[in-house]
Specification:
By secondary structure, this protein is of the alpha+beta class. Helices cover 35% and strands 27% of the residues. The chain has three domains: 46 residues, no CATH class; 39 residues; 158 residues, Thrombin, subunit H (Beta Barrel). Helix 2 packs across helix 3.
Length: 285
């Protein structure tokens, strides 16, 4: 104990200098927006590298699950391709249009509406009040704020912050996340899902009247008025309760995406979203 006190006494000035230095930096970051922005960029890049190293270890132990998911997705794509080749005639043009996810063809050929960017997950939280996901792709790879994000099994969230090589995604497990959805079996498309902060793989489906025919196991997908492409899987109805004080159901859905084991996601870019927003903003209020 005596040696500890002697050590502190001997290097007291040095420790005091470090403490004051850290205090000054914290004041600069807190009260100066320029320093705060610079600090945030450096912090995001630094923590992104650390998260990437940590995730490499976890990724090794989840290789089997990842490979199984990729194999299942490839099987679905091969099945869809076979259906395209079999049904690609004039009598099935609507089905063909839906499956290739493109606009009507013109003299220049088909125009792709959505582009998909694969990205590796390097950090993911599921137990906080508001959860976020860090992916290893950023502005240098074409990622922008507000792009939507999905996994091979279901939607994941939305990009909220971008650095040169990393992006932060607001997970569906976040109180600020709201997605417009529809019931695939009935076509009802005026509901929305949000997280109640309890179970990591369970969302709450709101705004479904008791007059709607909803059943346990029904598929819940993105609607045509969502920012996501239509009919992307969100989950399945797990529990239905009639709220006696309102005309709506209390519905819980099990998410299709497993937020505990996310390894790869797809960032979706809508090539026509700016045109749509410009047209809508020009309408008289």
């Amino acid at each position: 104990m005596k040696n500890i006190f002697l050590f502190i006494r001997r290097f007291f000035n040095f420790f005091l200098f470090l403490f004051l230095q850290v205090l000054c930096i914290s004041f600069l970051r807190k009260y100066n927006r320029s320093y705060e922005a610079a600090y945030s960029n450096v912090a995001h890049s630094f923590t992104g590298v650390i998260d990437e190293k940590y995730n490499n270890v976890q990724y090794y132990f989840d290789l089997k699950k990842t490979n199984n998911a990729l194999a299942a997705e490839n099987a679905k794509l091969k099945t869809a391709l076979n259906q395209l080749l079999h049904n690609g005639d004039s009598l099935n043009s609507n089905k063909l249009y839906t499956m290739i996810d493109s606009l009507n063809k013109d003299s220049l050929g088909s125009v792709r509406k959505y582009e998909y960017y694969e990205a590796k997950v390097v950090n993911n939280s599921v137990s906080n009040e508001n959860n976020y996901i860090t992916i290893e792709k950023g502005a240098n790879q074409g990622i922008k704020k507000d792009l939507t994000v999905t996994s091979p099994t279901g939607i994941v969230g939305r990009v909220v912050s971008v650095s040169p090589n990393y992006s932060i995604v607001m997970s569906l497990l976040n109180h600020n996340s709201h997605v417009t959805v529809k019931l695939k079996r009935t076509g009802f498309n005026e509901g929305f899902v949000e997280w109640d902060g309890k179970e990591a793989n369970v969302l709450v489906l709101n705004n479904v009247p008791k007059s709607v025919d909803v059943k346990k196991g029904d598929s819940v997908v993105t609607s045509n008025i969502s920012d996501f492409p239509e009919n992307l899987m969100i989950g399945r109805v797990q529990e239905i309760k009639a709220n006696p004080s309102t005309k709506y159901y209390n519905i819980k859905i099990a998410t299709s995406a497993n937020f505990y084991s996310l390894q790869y996601v797809y960032v979706i870019k809508n090539n026509f979203v700016n045109e749509q927003k410009t047209l809508e903003s020009a309408q008289p209020k």
